[in-house]
Structures are given as C-alpha cells and as structure tokens.
Predict the structure of DEAD/DEAH box helicase.
Amino acid sequence: MEDDGEWFRFDTPHRRSVQSSTEEREHILETEASIIEFSPGQIVVMGSDSSMRGAVVEVLPDQPENRVKVFLEGRVQTFYASQLRTEEERDEVQFISNDQFHAYLTALQIRHPSLSTLYSLNAARVDFIPYQFRPVLRFIRSDRPRLLIADGVGVGKTIEAGLILRELQARRDIRSVLIICPRPLVTERKWESEMKRFEERFIPLNGPTLRYCINELDLEGVWPDQHQKVILPYSLFDDALLYGSGTEGKRRSRKGLLDLDPPPRFDLVIVDEAHRIRNQETSAHKAVRFFCDHAEAAVFLTATPIQLGSHDLFVLLNTLRPDLILDQESFEHMAEPNPFINQAVNHARAQEQDWTARAAEALEQAASTSWGRAILLRNPEFNQIRERVSAWGDSGQQGIKSGIAAQKLLREAPPTWNASAAQSSADDDERIQLITDIEALHTFSGIINRTRRRDIGEFTIRKPETVAVEFTEGQKRLHDDLLQVQAEIFSRLHSDISIKFLMTTIRRQAASCLFGLAPFLEDILNRHIDELEWTEADNTAPVLRSDAVVSIQLKIQDVLEQARALDPYDPKYERLLNVIRDKQNLSNNKVMLFSSFRHTLHYLYERLKADGLRVGMLHGGTPDEERLALRNRFTMPREDSNTLDILLFSEIGCEGLDYQFCDCIVNYDLPWNPMRVEQRIGRIDRVGQKSETVAIVNLITPGTVDADIYERCLVRIGVFESALGGSEEILGDITREIRNIAENYTLSEEERGAKLQQLADNKIRLVQEQAALEQKQMELFGIRLPEDRMKREIEDASSFWLTSASIHRLVALYLQQACGRDQEFILGERPLKTLRLSQEARTILLRDLQTLPRQDAIAYREWEKWLKGADQHLAMTFESDCATEHPEAAFVMPLHPLVKQAAAALLSDMGRKAVAKLKVQASEVPAGLYEFVIYQWQFHGIREDLALKPIASSDAVTPHLNRLLEKAVDVAPDEQGDGAPPVWDELEAQHYQLWSAARAEHQQRTQELAAYRRESLSTSHKARLGLLNEQLEQANNEKIRRMRRSQIDSAEADYARRIQELDRAIERADVVHEPVAYGVLIIEEEW
C-alpha cells in the first residue's frame, strides 16, 4: 500500500518526468516476480509485524501486484502481496533455553488467567496464611460474584477482601471499588492502611464529597474519575441522602441516591460489619442494597455469629443475592436440608462404626425435605456423592480400596513404598475429599464462607483467671431488694415484653456495678437511653418505649434512692485495682477492660483516673477525633508521657479494631451470649499477636444470675480456654435458653440454678463432645481436617509459574531482550534488590508500559513516575515478606505493570509456540528421552476456564511432567542433537483420547448443570415475581409503586437474560485446544 502511495506522489512538475515514472513502473514490474504467490488457506504474517498472523481467504489478481484477503484479528482484511510473507517453517528445530521456556509458561499464565489458579498468592504485602485464601477460591468459582464472609474474630477478613480484589484484578480491569464500613474504621484509617498493602489507594468520602459525586453522576451520567475507589461510613446514609431534600411545597433541590438514573455501578462493593444492615427499615440497609443491586461484584464481611434460621442471616443473604434468597419462607425452605448435611459430615469425620450407612441415611433425609425433593435430587453433584458414599460402604472397608486415588498412588509408588501405608494415605485423602464435597452440598455454601477460629488452630494459649468478689452487706441488701422489686413489677406487668427486657437490663447493670446503677436508673427515668447504648448492653429487644417507664416509675424511684445512699467502699473495684497494678509491673503493661454498660465504664474511668492511672474510655458514643487520639495513645510505649496503659471498652467501642499489641483483657462483666465473649477475646487473640499467652481476667460476684451463668454455662462451654468450634447452631440455642431462664422471674434461685444445670447437662455437653471429637481426629489420625483441607486447596490452586522466582526470571529475561543482553539490570543476592536502568532503557520500558490499559493503582503510578524520572536506581523485591518489611520498595508480583508488560512482550516475540530441550534428574520415572507437548485447553460453557495440559510420549511420565519441568535445566551443547525435529505429531493420538473424554464429560456436565439451574431459576423466579406483585398491590405511594414496577421489569429481564445465558452455554459447551509448547525431556536417574 505504501508503494501505491509513492506511485502517485510527485514532488514538483519539473523534478519528476514521465520518463522517470516509466522507469519506476518498469522497476516494479521487474521485481514483481520476487513477490510471493499466495493461495487460500495459507498461513501468513505481516511483513511489518511478525506477531500479526492470519489465514489467506482469497487472492484477487491485479496489476502490478495481487491483493490478498486475510482473516486477521477476527475480521477479513485486504493487503497487497508485498505486505505479507509466509510463516517460516523450518525443518530444523530451534530450541530455546530453559529460562526462556520457563518464562514463556509464566507469561502464558499471566496473560491467560485460569479459574483454577490463585493469582493473589505472593501478590500483597501480607503474610502468607493459607486459610485466608478459602473465601478467595469460593468467590472466583461461584456462579455469581457474591460472597458473605462470616469468619471468626481475628481471622483476617479485611485481608481476605483484599485478596479477592487481587483475584478480580488478575482477570479483568477493576476500576471502581466502594468500601462501606462503620465510621470508627474510617476515622482510624483501617481500610486505607490495609488496602495500601495491596498497592491500592482509597479515599474516604465525607458528606459534601459524597453529595458532589451524586450531583456529578446526575449531571454527567458517570461517577467522578477521581473518586473511583472510595470508603463510605454508614453514618452518611440518611433519608435526605437516599430520597433527596428540598423545601416543602417546592421542587426538590437535590436528587436522592435512589433517584439516580443511571445508578452508580461499582466493579466491587465491600460491606464491612455487614450485620449493621440487619434492620431492613434503616437508611443504611436501603443504601447498601442499592449499591449492591447495581454492582458487578459484592462481598459482605461480618464476624457476628450466624445461626441458620436467624432473621439476620436471611436479611444479609437476601441483600446479597435477592435472586436466590427471595423471602423468609424460601430461606427457611433452603435451610431445611442443612442439619442433615451437617450430620453426614460429622459421621464422616468421626468414622464410627457403620458411619457410611449413617452418612447415607442423613443424605437421604436431606433429600426428603421439600427443598431436597425440588432441587437436591436434580443436582448431579448430590447424586454423585450419594453413589460415592454407598460405594464406600459396600466395599466393607474404611476406604475405597479400588478407588482412583488408591490405584494411582499404588501404581506410581516407588518399589520401596509400604503398600499398606500408601493405601491408608489414599483412604484418608479420599475421605477428606468426601467430607469437603458433602459440605459443599450445604445450600448456602456457594454464598457463605465460614472459617472458625478452631479450624485454623490456636494463635496463642489462653490463660483465664476467675476473680470472685462478694457483695458487702449493704450491696447485697440493695441487690436483693432490687430482685424483690423486679418480682413485684413482673407479677403485675408480665405480659409487657419491653418491661421484661428493662428489668433484665437493670439486674445485669447491678451485677456489673452497683455504683453505675443510680445514674443508669436516672437515665431511664429521664428517657436518656438511646438505641446504641441499649444495643451495647447486649439487648436484642427494641429500645425501651418512653411510655413504658410511667407504670414502674415509683418502684424505680425507690431503688434509685437506696442506690444513691450506698456505702462508697467497693471491693470489686479494689480487686480490679490489684489486677491492674500487678500488670503494670510486667514489660507489657497494657490492659483492655470490657463492660456492657456505659455507666460502669464511666464509674471505672473516674476512679482509675483518680488513682493516678493513665486510662482512656471508648464506647459507641465516643466522637471520631477522640477515638483516634485514644487509640493512638494506647499504642504508644509506656515510656511516652502521653501514653495510655488502660483502655475501657464497650462491645461497639472496639468493633472491627485490632489490638494485637495488648495481651490482657479484663471482663468487668460478661455477656450471656458466649459468641460475644469470643468477640471480646478475639480483639487480642488474633493473627499478629506476639505474645505466646493472653490473660483473660473475669470478675464475678457470687449470688448473681451472671455468676450462675458464668459457672454453669460459659466456663463449661470452654470459651475462655480456646476458640469456639463448629457448634454454632447449638450455641445459638444455648444463648436463647440462657436468656429465657434468666428472664423468668417466677423461678426461685434454686429453680433457676437447676434449669441452668439441666441446660449444661444437655446442650453444653454436645459442645464439649464436638470439641473432643475434633481433638480425637488430630491425635488418633494425625489429621486436623479443616486445616488439612485448606492446605490442600491452596496447593492445588498454586502454580509454580507464578512464584516469586518465576516472576523474577520473566522480568530479568524481558529486561535483557528489551534493553540489551550484555549486563545485569537486577542487582543484589538478597530479597531486597536494586533495579538499575539507563535513561534510554527506561524510555524503552515506558513505551511498552503505554501499550497497556492505564490503571489507577499505586504500583502503576509509581512505576510510571520512576520511568519518567531521572533516578536510574529503584529498590525492588519479588518476595511478599520483604515487601512487608520494606514498604518503600517496589513489589514486583503477577499484577505489577512491569510483569504485565514483560509477559506481553515475551509472547509477542516468541509467538504462540515455544520449543525446548531440557534434562532433569528423577527417580519416580524410568530414565530416558521423552518428547512432550503442552496444550492449552479453553473450556466454554457455564464456566469459562483455561488449563495447561501436558502430554508426554510415555504414560508413566505424563502425570509427573509438570513437576519434572519445574526442576529441569538446560542440556549441554553437545546434547542438543543434530537438529532433526522430534515427531511430536505422534503425541496427537494420545492427546485426542484425553481431549475427547474431557470434552464429552464437560458437555454432559454442562447440560446437567444447565437443567438443574434452569429448574432452580424457574422456581425462584416465580416466587420472586409473586412477592413483587404482592408488594405492588399493597403499595399506596406512587413512588413506591413505580419502584416496584421497576423491580418487576428488572426481575423479568434478569430471568430472561440468565435463561438465555444457559441456552448459550449449552450451545457453546466445548473444549478448544491449541498446542502452545513443545519439548524434549531427558530424564536421568537421580543419584
């Protein structure tokens, strides 16, 4: 085409003559014979860019040269013949080095991510903790990008959310992320600092900035670019923000969030402390639901205990997946099979006699529920698991001796292996996998991740201490009189639920601190108790009605007068003072003190301060600035004159915050809910705690109902000795029964004690048995099942080609090819290295960087800034541990722009195929020379995926090929051979057998899953429409009716779209294969 342009361009009428034009034409005609003749079907490449490769569709004869139509980059394009050349096909094979071959495989995985591979491993400035990758795997493999992470306290949910963000970024361009969290976490910049460990910069929004974003979206139709990654506190969500504001009777001056069209669409929404939206009538709930409804992906984080069947769990799941969890009734139907599935898991874990029969019976019971009959029986995975359990039982052994895993292990084992040991290992592997698969049948398993503290072992040793302090005579008289007044009030007003809760709270305040009773009663009489304070006191009932106090005002006044006259001597406080002073003699003198009551906290704060101690106080009402200052002072070393040694907390006061630097907590009073106790302890017993032990001091007053609950229930449950295990459903029942017994004012003290003892003998015994079973598994079988499963899942999802060493190799090779081979650019033998590049080299890399999509990430901006700058040295590391220790160093991992541009450049230079001749020492396969091909399989259908499939010329080598290639090295020059091409075509027959079997299985499974999901979608869609239509009929407000109609339209469109996707998935179900690498592997016997 350029020649054609030259033909018609003349400089001036006088400088070029017709004669010269004729000479040019004759020259072209003379060289015409040198232009290659092409034919349809031939593979050609662009002369200007050999990476542009296509197939000839048609040749159009023309003069002076032919035109050629080529299918290139997904469309037919026309070129002149001189612009093309044939793809070089050499009989002689050009082998690349081992480093080049390894770097090529790394580049393939960077450019073509797989669902079965984790890309967030070694991709953040965090410690590697295997269990934190469980929710990541669950998220990337789910049918929709939605997940509720309900892990135990201290497990590290913030890090898990960051890892999920990393995985999304490895697979697509993530530009907008919204984090919603409580205001204290914004004030203390927790999410800002945590996200910096993932090379991300988030901006917290205040009210005016959020209003600006809403206005910009309303005017421009897009969310402002500078606020694409933001943090919002729940406290910003109110009716004015949601619905707009303006002068009554006039046109509203501001649009509300819910009115925006188009709505804000974030790539990812993260909702921390998600239990805060459990009330569907609050503005916070409505705002979160709105953002999630229009987000591409959503993750909820909550450490609050979840019991199946609870309304709170329904609300969270309904907000997260309204297409699946439609209403309370459908939620309860979905939950019906889960107790039976849990029974099957427990039978498989315990391995008691006839466990297979019991597990099979439990699965049959799950299938007999209404949800089981409608959904489970149609699920191919459920039916496969039932068959496996039956097959295991029919074998008459504790394992399937004929199982695939056992056969493979025995067949491939070296002669020195002990066959029975290998068999036992295979049986354990198979059983652990079976347990994992049964657990996956849990109807909420695809949308909930629950990692319990006990599943991951102990962070520290808990050392509990009980400090029992008797009432003085005056205190006991006040306490007993209070109980008498409560009994009298309850006998008259026993049907009033709010009065019952009020009297319970007054009694718990008295057990906590009698010197906080008088101000507490004054606040009740003056109606000063707000909802937050009520919640802090562990109340599940609605906040007290103001009119409820009137009927009991005189009785409360009598108690108040007696409390005001109480002798100021307080033995409980004196014992606390002794505990604190003893702690001040230790090197770590920090103490966290908890109480459920603000009046107790205020009393203790004043007294401790008067006694000369450096003390602060945090509760739900503490202002943001003061909260941040107090926390900072608490972290200071004791030598600092501004430090705090003791910090007083309510539950809400420390919610979501980490205090690993402290190793002692004091419970001045205790919640009745054991999971709330666990949350308190989890503030210090968590990842990052440096001390081997943590002290838990419990102050108890004998003769109170709290003391009874402590001795008979909380201590026996074991919450003070170790993290609670997998008995949350039982614990939920225990909490409800504790409250029912404690709030039954018709019971005498003896009757109450007897009922608590009965509860301990019945329900708490089950918790103890479950804990004993878990310990037995570890001691007898050497297996900690959840921990073993986590490690195995991570190992299966790890890739050698994405390790730090592999990334280093890829980058080093790229720098040598781009900037010259004669020097080293990455300097240093230790993990912390220095990158040294000249101005010219940085310019070359900058050009490559600019070919990538631009990203608003710290790593991208800092890399670009350095390339444009004058400094030729850059501190860098490929190791996450080193990156954590040296935050100033560039962390080069799979998502870093340097790695991205290296992978792109390497694949462009090498094309789509690499050929290598390597050698390795091994004992598991016979020595010899083996040819191999690595195919890339693309799975199309319901789940899109990519996989590399190595095929060797020996069946004995194929299963080990990946591991052998990882250890391979270059062959010596004299071992390269004569250059004759190996006969790789012979491996195609072997590949075809594997591919055809995999393709048939994939197509069948796609059809089965599509049929199952179609049935599930149809059932849920009908129920969803019925609910929405009913809500539409009941709505009187035209705005609400408009919203309901919009929801119905959206539901119809969503259903049609998802059915269409299923139909398209069945049509597209295929495994597309392509050879991407060839090689010869010389295996030498290992010495």
Remarks:
- Residues 741 and 752 are 7 Å apart (CA to CA).
- The chain has six domains: 2-86, 94-117+799-911, 124-247+254-323, 338-442, 461-783, 912-1087.
- The chain is about 50% helix and 15% strand.
- Confidence is low (pLDDT under 50) at residues 1-34, 247-251, 396-426, 777-784.
